[in-house]
Amino acid sequence: MKHIKFLSLAIIFVMAFAACAPAQADQANKTEQAEPTEQTAKQADRVLKPTSDTQLRPDMKPDQVTVIDFNATWCGPCKFFAPIFHKASNKFNNAKFYSVDTDEYGQTASAFGIQAIPTIVIISPSGKTQTIVGIGDELTAGISEDATDEQFEQAVYDNFCKLIMKAIANK
Description:
5-stranded mixed beta sheet; 5 strands; Glutaredoxin; single chain; 2 domains; 15% strand; globular; alpha/beta
């Protein structure tokens, strides 16, 4: 009976230790990621956050193409798309890029009719808008089923850039 109690306690201890180890590793990774590198600091400079819940509106006619990424911190596809969005913001100096956290700016998301995230809205100076919901057909067109993760990410970036270039050309 003593052996069973000891064995049970040992198993519980090992399971508790194993469960904490990934959490500690995740915490260490978050600490490492929290310190921005020079490159990520440059990327963050081009992507703007709204200053109020009324700054961005569906009926706006901006002075240049405006690209809005509606996202949330807990959203997996949003996390996948974020570096692509930042990379594109560095490529197109003639467009404005906004990242809108739907949890923080719910009125803005509601005004645009956002029902799923990520949703990208591209607004031209004429007021014409294009909405891309999720990482869907517009962003995944032409991607091979056997594409590597890197090839998939590059193809999504390339397709996203084509959509922005089209909006810039059709001001």
